[in-house]
Write a structure and sequence with these properties.
Helices cover 29% and strands 18% of the residues. Strand 8 and strand 9 form a beta hairpin.
Length: 357
Amino acid sequence: MAQAKPAATAEASGIPIVDFAKWHSDPSLQRKKEVAKQLTEACKTMGFVYIVNHTVSPGRLAEAFEWSKKLFDLKREEKMLAPHPNGSAVHRGYSWPGLEKVSNLMGEETDADAAKKARQVPDVKESYEVGSESNGDQPNVWLPENVLPGFRKFTTEFYWECHEVAKVILQAMAIGIGLSDEEYFLKSHSGHNNQLRLLHYPPILAVELEGQSTRMPAHCDWGSFTLVFQDECGGLQVENPNAAGDFIAAPPLKNAIIMNVGDLMQRWSNDYLKSTLHRVGLPPRQDRFTGDERMTQARYSIPYFVSPEGKSIVECLPSCTNEARPVKYKPIMWDDYRLMRASMQYEDKTKDLEVTA
């Protein structure tokens, strides 16, 4: 994997930083417009933005990372008590290293061979997915309470705390792209279709990441947008908007959220907002390695994927098209798009059994 351009700090990365303090302290329409303009301008040019002074407290965020570490420190057989269901329809529970293969393949018939080839290069990560307890289409898969007491309670509470942040961003995006109704996106985003993901990237030899293995290859997110909390290790890389295939580091900014636009918001806005390729590679600083063999440190991150109701039809907003900007995408239902993309990341083992039977 080619190295990303180094950036010692978030401020030096070129990724915009948007402060929501004024939004919360003075919720007048004029003040909201100022913050919303900064947000959508960042989403238009880079597709990624650091958000500071959001409503998740530093203490609560520290708790989330503590729970994540407790989870992944469990023995493998304990984590396997809540296994990710077979196939790609339900995305919940524990995904062990090698189960999921992240890619930017769309799920069309012509992508089947490419997906098999992509799986030959494993992603070195493990994850645990949590959703709304009221989402019958994506039921949660929980560890037994005695295995990690309090984990279910914390993650379900944290899930909805993240949704409160998402609601503010949905309002800001509506204002920023010129919609008259600032609650336009809120009407299709109840929170029940979001996804909280705890991610752990175990230590790995740097030479392996420089060769065939990846922590997570380049991809775009499928939903409306993603909120990401990073630990101090680093490794997130974002494609340079001015040079395709060139990646820049997105270093951690303490207590900040790094937010990125997803495919759905790009479709709604007719490419006004940008769903940007990103990946996870080597930590950006040499002191992130240990020993002569350059063993990378473990990395933890917590993404929160924000998506609309499953039956929502995503189509170009009237304010985002004119004679000079014709509609670029056909309308699509979120459930259909999600399943199409997910089919490229998780294998359906029952199909393999049917073929060999």
